[in-house]
Amino acid sequence: MRVLVVEDEEFLADMIVSGLRRAALTVDIAHSGGGALDRLRRDAYDVLVLDHDLPGLHGDEVFRYVVEQALPTRVLLLVASGPAPSPGGREPGADDLLTKPFAFDVLRDRVLALGRSARSGRPPVIERAGVRLDTGRRLAVRDGRPLALSRKEFGVLEVLLRAQGAVVGDDELIEEVWEEQPRHRTNAVRVTLGTLRAKLGDPPVIEAVPGAGYRMGGGPAAGDAPSASGEPAAGALG
Questions:
Q1: Section 199-226 average pLDDT
Q2: Which parts of the chain are beta strand (E)?
């Protein structure tokens, strides 16, 4: 599950991001509305955790972009205590709203619920770089050639296709595809990617991004991949 956290209070943002990463989610961060739009234009996210009262480019404008672009991203709006605005302000309602201060466990549970909702509405057929995946019938084809994929190979290919060219790390692949945590996580992913690439054939369509993960076709540079943050604090956030 991919999450974008947009919060101008850096200390609060870092605590949220760190806590969500501890829950094995893949999380990016932006501290401004402009930074949020840059991320949303480049990467695909299941959930957007959006501070309503961003300085400069307001949270309403970020939410408007999600609506106008018809992004499948679910939006959790963070609002200050007091009279709460309608979700999304001037726009149609966000998917959920959380008033500051809040307990981190509440935010995490809301994010997980929205992520599950986002995924349930995904289209059954996805295609990129000549690779077509029918998730309903579990069929995979490249340039008209059927692919005989194992369950893990199919799962890894689906995650990479849905990322739309964004980098996907080992942790996210493990979370999405493996039912149990493998003993050697990186090696398990590497082996599965190796057999998947062999079955896809030439020219290669899955690219390894050193220190970051893998991507399908074009995508953001490795330097744009998220890095680990500090530990979340207990109690109310915000």
A1: 73
A2: 2-6, 26-30, 47-51, 74-79, 96-99, 102-103, 125-128, 131-134, 139-142, 145-146, 206-209, 213-216, 236-237
